[in-house]
Amino acid sequence: MELYILESTRTNNFTDPDMYSKITGIWQNVQGQPEVANTVIYGVYHNYESNYKGDYDLSIATSSFTTTKKLTVSEQGYKIFKVDRSKENGVFETWQQIWALEESGELDRAYTFDYEKYDVSGEIEIFIGVI
User: Fold this and answer.
1) By the 8 A CB rule, do 123 and 40 touch?
2) In a designed cystine with 57, which of 21, 47, 73, 127 is the match (CB 3.0 to 4.6 A)?
3) What is the Cα–Cα distance from 31 to 25, expressed in whole angstroms?
4) For the sheet containing 56-62, what is the strand order?
C-alpha cells in the first residue's frame, strides 16, 4: 500500500514524557489541513526499536494525495481490531487489548508495520502486522 506522509514523530509509550503531546500535536496539525477532509487517514506505526515498549515512528498519512514523503506499507498478514467508537478512549482501550494479547502469547506481532485506519464513515480499525 502506497501512502503519503503528512506528519511524523518518534516516541515511546512508556519512557517519553512528551509522548502524548507529540502524538496529539501531529494529529491536530493534520486535522487542520483542508485537503484531508473526507479522505481516509492512516496512523502508521513503523521503524520499531524492539516491541511495543521500545521507540517507534508514528506517521500520519493518506493515499488520496501526494506529498514528497512516501511510505510503502508491506502487504503482510494483519490481524484487524475494530475500535468501539462509542467509548471516548476506544482507540487506547483497543491498544491495551492488543498489548494484553501479546503479553499472554495469543498475538505474535511482526513489528514491521501496524496502522490505524480512520475511514470517512467514522469507522476505526487497527491493523496489527503478524508473523
Assistant:
1) no
2) 47
3) 10
4) 70-72, 2-11, 56-62, 41-46, 109-118, 124-130, 78-82
The answer to whether the CB of 63 falls within 8 A of the CB of 4 is: yes
10-residue mean pLDDT profile of the chain (131 residues): values are: 95 96 95 87 97 96 85 93 95 96 97 97 97 93
Radius of gyration for the chain, computed over Cα atoms and rounded to the nearest angstrom: 14
Residue 76 contacts residue 129 (beta carbons within 8 Å): yes
Q: Does domain 2-130 have CATH number 3.20.80.10?
A: yes
The grid cell for 90 is: 476506544
Say how far apart CA 85 and CA 56 lie, in whole Å: 25
